[in-house]
Amino acid sequence: MTSPAPEQAVPFGESDWEALRAAARDAMSRAYAPYSRYPVGVAARVDDGRTITGCNVENASYGLSLCAECGLVSTLQATGGGRLTHFTCVDGTGSILVPCGRCRQLLYEFGGPELLLETPDGRRTLDEMLPQSFGPQHLG
Ligand SMILES: O=c1ccn([C@H]2C[C@H](O)[C@@H](CO)O2)c(=O)[nH]1
Q: Can you state which reaction this protein catalyses (predicted)?
């Protein structure tokens, strides 16, 4: 018996994207961003069906600030690991934001080229947002 493809195993429709954005906005409302005053929230679906979130956490030593995606990948591991399949990021107004370059690399580690991201121009694979990526495959 063959296993269904992951996208068939856990269907993901428009209402799921809406729920993911709502989770990201909720996380954004708890961001700690007193220096930039630019709160960010992220949410992702994991291949086992759970939803995880993160928010940015800044620091008085500005360069130590953590992007929301840092919290998300930490939560991913702390709650059981798995692969990211769908991802969204919102700014302080709740509008869709593209993750910064460093965070695309963080996402690549746990989602790979097939991870689907929302952007202001529609949904894109991570392969489109971070082409010719360096990743675990290069390290053998
Ligand atoms: O993908 C991104 C881009 C920016 N930020 C945060 C970092 C900083 O706290 C604030 C302004 O750059 O936004 C994120 O959390 N994720």
A: 2'-deoxycytidine + H2O + H(+) = 2'-deoxyuridine + NH4(+); cytidine + H2O + H(+) = uridine + NH4(+)
